[in-house]
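Notebook B, p. 112. Complex prediction, attempt 2.
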Amino acid sequence: MKAPILETYGREAAAFKALGHPTRLFIAHQLGRRDTCVCELRDMVGDDISTVSRHLSVLRSAGIVDSVRKGNQIIYSLKLRCVLNIRVCGNFGGRK
Amino acid sequence: MKAPILETYGREAAAFKALGHPTRLFIAHQLGRRDTCVCELRDMVGDDISTVSRHLSVLRSAGIVDSVRKGNQIIYSLKLRCVLNIRVCGNFGGRK
DNA sequence: CATCTATTTGGCGATTTGGCAAAATAGCAA
DNA sequence: TTGCTATTTTGCCAAATCGCCAAATAGATG
């Protein structure tokens, strides 16, 4: 790949890549409703908590979510709020 | 992953996933400017033509691009035009 | 200190991805 | 038919991803 392409599209492509998994896309939208701990997301998602934690770290390194420790749990929040407004045209999704 | 999450977010996540590679994101935007053949994209991208062809097949199976044969070459076009309007907030990209 | 809870990290197999080169395919033209 | 060009497919390999379990870590609390 030529360097200018990577420079121009690399970061945004990385954000798309992070959102390119159903669980992570769900998590991003859920965090758009309210901040939650990992444990709560695990209940909603149904995967092992270590798997959910990994998804969150992917989202965080892409700059999409943020986290703050509160007591003995870690609260995640949606940092890139615009994610909520992104809709792919066509019959994607099915959310209201 | 729980089934409802896959049903609700699966298709859109697949579109994000397809766009989650710098070369594919570039190709999508380039096709937004004008329809081109694979050979032309290969010159712009710099990868092997088989690699570019694969990227295009990924974009096509995600429903993002379309293709039409014209003579002995295949012309690709952007099917999901809204892709051009998707911008991730923050300092992503760098396009105008 | 020890212990409990919440979360992250390491390691593992199974699967997928990205890239190239070579072979196969499709159409055009002689 | 043969040959030529454009594109796709196949084979291969290294690297990344996904999901789980187990171990490690960080704060809380006793």
